[in-house]
Design goal:
Largest sheet: 7 strands, mixed
Order of helices and strands: HHHHHEEEEHEHHEHEHEHEEHEEHEHEH
Number of strands: 14
Strand order of the largest sheet: 4-1-5-6-8-7-12
Shape: globular
Helix content: 40-55%
CATH class of the largest domain: Alpha Beta
CATH topology of the largest domain: Rossmann fold
Distance between the termini: 57 Å
Strand content: 5-15%
Length: about 450
C-alpha cells in the first residue's frame, strides 16, 4: 500500500511541476492548492473520527415505481421547435453533404412522426433544458455517436466551426453539454459519477462506445454506483448508456453485461432498463431527470435498432403517456394464445418478424422494458389474460448471462405472491464462457435457433 501511495505522490509532483513549467499556474498557486487540499482532508478526518455511528440512509426510491407517476410528456410545439434548430443553422454554416439527408430526416420526424432512437433521445435532452435541468453527456464518441446516429454537435465542413443545436432551445433555462472523453472508462465514469453527486439537478450521463467497454470501469460500478448509498449515504443519479445487442460483431462488441448489474441490484439501489421503443426511452430519460428520488440508471441502448424501420415511435407517444415498465401485447385474441414470450430490447423485433412471417396468432410477446426493480405486478397484469399459456423468457445472451439468471431467480416467486404460480421456461443461447461467438454465420444460426425455440 505504501508503494502505491508513494507512486501517487510522485505522479502528483511531476504533474504539478509540469503545470508550473508551462506557466499554467505559479508556485504559490500550487502551494495554496496543496494547503487547501490537506485542510479539507483533515476536516473530513476529524468529522469522521468524531461520528458516533454510520447513518442508515433511506431507500433510494419506493419499491413501486409507478406509485407516483412522473409526467414526462411534452408538447408538439416543443418537439417542432427542437426540429427547427436542426433545420435552421447559423448563416453560412455548411453541413457535410453526406450528413445532410440524415439531418433532413430528423427535422421531418418532428412534424411527421416515425421518430427514430437518436431523435427521441435529443428530444428528451432538449426538453429537459426547458424544464430547468442541465444535461451533461460524456463518452468516447458521444457528440457524433458511436454509430453516427446522434450528431448532437454539428461541424462546419469548411471552417471546422461547431454548432450545438440543443443549446438554443426556445424557453430553455438550463444547458445541454456534450463531450468526447478520453479512452479510459475507469477515469471517465468515475468523474461523471462524482459530477452527478455534486450536481443534483443535472442529468449526468456517461456513455460507453460499446456496452462491453464498461468492463474497464467495474471498480467504479461495484464500489460507487451500486453501493455508494448503502455504504456512505451518498446519492447519485448518474446514468450509464451501454450499447447492447447481438449483431454478430463478436465477443467484445455485443454485451453490456446486464447480468452483472442485475447481480448488484438490491434494496432499490438503481434502475436497470432495456427499452425497445424510442418513445419509451425518451420517457425513461425524462423520468430519470425529473424524479425527486436520486438513483443511478443503467440503460442498455441499441445498435441495429438505431436504423431499423420498425423501431420508430409516433408523435402522440411523446405528447402523451409516460414510461412503461412493461408493454403488453394487444394485437392478438387472448383465447387463441397458448404461449407467452417475455423479452427485453432488440430481440422483440426478431420475434415479431418471425411471428408475422409464420402467420402465428397463438404466441403473445410481452416486453419487459425495466429489469430492475422488477415490475412483477405489471408483468402479472400483462399475462393474466392467458392463464393457461406457457411462459417463456427469450433472450439473445447465453443462458448464464443476460437477464435470465435474475428472472429465473426472482420472477416466479413474485408472480406466485400475486396469485400466478407459473413456471418460466428459457429460450436462449447455451451457457458460454464468452459473451458471444466470433463468427457472424454461427451467430446467425444461433439467433434463428433462439427465435424458433421461443415461438415453439
Amino acid at each position: 500500500m505504501y508503494d502505491i501511495i508513494d507512486k501517487k505522490r510522485s505522479v502528483r509532483k511531476i504533474y504539478t511541476e509540469a503545470l508550473i513549467g508551462r506557466g499554467d499556474i505559479s508556485l504559490s498557486d500550487a502551494e495554496e492548492a496543496l494547503k487547501d487540499f490537506q485542510s479539507q482532508l483533515e476536516k473530513v478526518f476529524l468529522e469522521t473520527r468524531g461520528a458516533t455511528g454510520r447513518p442508515t440512509p433511506e431507500p433510494v426510491m419506493n419499491p413501486d415505481l409507478n406509485a407516483q407517476p412522473i409526467p414526462t410528456a411534452i408538447s408538439g410545439e416543443l418537439i417542432k421547435s427542437i426540429g427547427d434548430l436542426y433545420a435552421n443553422h447559423p448563416a453560412g454554416f455548411v453541413i457535410h453533404p453526406r450528413l445532410k439527408p440524415q439531418i433532413d430526416r430528423r427535422v421531418a420526424q418532428t412534424t411527421g412522426g416515425d421518430v427514430d432512437w437518436a431523435t427521441a433521445e435529443l428530444l428528451a435532452f432538449g426538453s429537459l433544458t426547458v424544464d430547468g435541468h442541465n444535461v451533461r453527456l460524456a463518452g468516447q464518441d458521444s457528440r457524433r455517436g458511436t454509430f453516427t446516429q446522434r450528431h448532437a454537435v454539428l461541424i462546419d465542413r469548411n471552417t471546422g466551426e461547431e454548432y450545438t443545436p440543443l443549446r438554443y432551445v426556445p424557453g430553455a433555462t438550463a444547458q445541454f453539454r456534450s463531450y468526447d472523453s478520453l479512452l479510459s472508462e475507469y477515469a471517465a465514469m468515475g468523474f461523471e459519477y462524482g459530477y452527478s453527486v455534486a450536481d443534483e439537478d443535472s442529468l449526468v450521463i456517461w456513455e460507453a462506445q460499446f456496452g462491453d467497454f464498461a468492463d474497464g470501469a467495474q471498480t467504479i460500478i461495484d464500489e460507487f454506483i451500486a453501493s455508494g448509498e448503502a455504504k456512505w449515504g451518498q446519492r447519485s443519479s448518474v446514468t450509464l448508456l451501454l450499447p447492447h445487442g447481438y449483431e454478430g460483431q463478436g465477443p467484445d462488441h455485443s454485451s453490456g453485461r446486464p447480468e452483472r448489474f442485475l447481480q448488484l441490484a438490491a434494496e432499490n439501489n438503481m434502475t436497470i432498463a432495456m427499452c425497445s421503443s424510442p418513445a419509451n426511452y425518451f420517457h425513461l430519460l425524462r423520468r430519470q431527470a425529473l424524479s425527486d428520488i436520486r438513483r443511478p440508471l443503467i440503460a442498455f441502448t441499441p445498435k441495429s435498432l438505431l436504423r431499423l424501420k420498425a423501431a420508430v415511435s409516433q408523435l402522440a407517444e411523446f405528447t402523451d403517456g409516460a414510461f412503461q415498465p412493461v408493454i403488453a401485447d394487444s394485437a392478438l385474441d387472448p383465447s387463441e394464445v397458448t404461449r407467452v414470450v417475455l423479452c427485453s430490447g432488440k430481440i422483440y423485433y426478431d420475434l415479431l418478424a418471425a411471428r408475422i412471417a409464420a402467420g402465428r396468432s397463438d404466441v403473445a410477446i410481452v416486453r419487459v422494458e425495466q429489469l430492475y426493480p422488477l415490475p412483477a405486478a405489471e408483468i402479472a397484469a400483462a399475462i393474466e389474460l392467458y392463464p393457461e399459456a406457457q411462459l417463456i423468457w427469450a433472450q439473445e445472451e447465453p443462458a448464464n448471462q443476460g437477464a435470465y439468471p435474475f428472472i429465473a431467480l426472482n420472477l416466479p416467486e413474485q408472480l406466485a405472491a400475486l396469485g400466478q404460480n407459473r413456471p418460466i421456461y428459457r429460450a436462449s443461447r447455451r451457457a458460454s464462457a464468452s459473451p458471444a461467438v466470433g463468427s457472424s454465420s454461427v451467430h446467425e444460426a444461433q439467433q434463428r435457433e433462439v427465435v424458433a425455440t421461443a415461438l415453439g
